[in-house]
Amino acid sequence: MSRILDQRILLLVISFSASVQSTKVLSKWKKCGDPECEKAMSRVQATTDYLGPDCRYLNFKTGEEIIVYSKLSRENENLWTGSKGKDFGYFPRDAVQIEEVLIGEEVEMLTKETDFLCLNEDKFNFE
Description:
SH3 domain; alpha+beta; 7-stranded antiparallel beta sheet; glycoprotein; globular; endoplasmic reticulum
């Protein structure tokens, strides 16, 4: 009985640490093309293959086109968010080349905790 309880506690700890990692706030600030972050900021092309560390990240191959909707700022300026087809997520800005700028001015705002949740099959993943 004690062994089963120990295994359950270990699984609970592992599950909790995975949950914290996948919902970790990556930056308190972001830049967008409009106050709702709905306007596309730019069109970029992947200069390298990229496979993100978890479901919050956008995976892509060299040459694929990505539409950028926001850029993390201040403490983590290297991550941008964008979409490729129906896939959406974070990716490093140094893995892409800007092809076309679609906005004139960026708006900086606070991020929300929901900015850092996984979005799979049109549902938020609250782990």
